């Protein structure tokens, strides 16, 4: 990477840190073992049929298992789950040993007490640089009436701490 590319990468990273996002935990099951990671690159794609996308770094252990399995859980974390987000933001260790979770109807791990849980089927992928964009069709959805966890400036925020325009 040359100096101009490094500068551009740093600038893009700074812009992204200033863009607020929600925090999700993407989960899957492989050979009876749950896998998951924190993900803030998540968005709605369509309501008919209901589809979402999420982006995962190709170097993660969970990425390999998402490529092998089409069933996926998408857990929108609640504002009081920042510590859980940190668990899933780091590789290694048994993340699920530190997590209250249950199996969904499709056999994927779902985080208990999340603001929302989706079960979905991966229907398409697109390799994009260091990441893969996964497009998934939602088959089940649940939600609780709680505030979601936000991420901004490298920190987790509760919506009550965010300033509305």
Can you walk me through this structure?
The protein starts with a helix and ends in an 8-residue tail after the last strand. A hairpin with a 5-residue loop joins strand 7 (101-103) and strand 8 (109-111). The chain has a single domain, classed as Roll (Pnp Oxidase, Chain A), CATH 2.30.110.10. The protein has helices spanning 3-17, 61-68, 82-89; strands spanning 21-22, 24-30, 33-39, 42-47, 50-57, 71-76, 101-103, 109-111, 116-128, 131-143, 150-152, 155-157. The chain is of the alpha+beta class. The strands form three sheets. A seven-stranded antiparallel sheet has the order 3-2-6-9-10-5-4. It has a three-stranded antiparallel sheet with strand order 1-11-12, with no helix packed on it. A two-stranded antiparallel ribbon has the order 7-8.
What's a concise summary of this model?
The chain has 165 residues and is α+β, with helices and mostly antiparallel strands.
Q: Walk across the major sheet and give the strand order.
A: 3-2-6-9-10-5-4
The CATH class turns out to be: Mainly Beta
Indicate the mean pLDDT. Answer: 92
Q: Strand-and-helix sequence, N→C?
A: HEEEEEHEHEEEEEE
Number of strands: 12
Structural class: alpha+beta
Helix segment tally:
3
Indicate the radius of gyration in whole angstroms.
16 Å
Strand content: 35-45%
Could you give the distance between the termini?
39 Å
CATH architecture: Roll
Number of domains: 1
Task: Look at the structure and name the CATH superfamily.
Answer: Electron Transport, Fmn-binding Protein, Chain A
> Biggest sheet: strands, sense, closure?
7 strands, antiparallel
The level of helicity is: 10-25%
The global form is: globular
Predict the CATH topology. Answer: Pnp Oxidase, Chain A
Residue runs with pLDDT of under 50 for 5 or more positions? none
